[in-house]
Design a protein that fits this description.
The protein is mainly alpha-helical. 61% of the residues lie in helices and 10% in strands. The chain has helices at residues 5-13, 15-24, 44-50, 52-62, 72-84, 92-99, 103-114; strands at 27-28, 31-35, 66-69. The protein starts with a helix and ends with a helix. A 3-stranded antiparallel sheet has the order 1-2-3, with no helix packed on it. Helix 1 (5-13) packs across helix 2. The longest helix is centred in the last third of the chain and has 13 residues, at 72-84.
Length: 115
């Protein structure tokens, strides 16, 4: 699977904290923007959401960066589909119906995850 901006943030602070932070950002034109301030004293709003330690880790890795995050709901549905693909009794059609993704999307992500 291609590495996205969501994956980059998840690698730094963990998936749960990243999703919590991303969902707290305002949506503009279907996208969310995360700007990590250059000065550490200005990350207080981030530390209120994900905690001081993770906020400092995010700051040390991405200070001064602006990250444009795509559709978080689509990301969550893809992750759910990849988890469901681990069950051998589930068919791709059943997973597509359950997650709301198109079958070709599931096949593409499944092949990329297997590689």
């Amino acid at each position: 699977m291609a590495k996205t901006n969501i994956h980059a943030v998840c690698e730094i602070i963990g998936e749960d904290a990243a999703l919590k932070l991303i969902k707290s950002l305002p949506e503009q034109n279907g996208r969310r923007r995360l700007y990590v301030p250059v000065k550490p004293k200005r990350i207080s709003w981030i530390s209120e959401i994900i905690g001081e330690e993770r906020a400092m880790k995010l700051h040390s890795e991405m200070a001064g960066c602006q990250v444009v995050i795509g559709n978080i709901e689509l990301y969550e549905r893809k992750q759910a589909a990849l988890r469901l693909l681990q069950c051998p009794e589930k068919t791709v059609s059943a997973i597509a119906a359950e997650t709301g993704l198109h079958r070709s999307t599931i096949y593409r992500n499944w092949r990329a995850a297997a590689a």
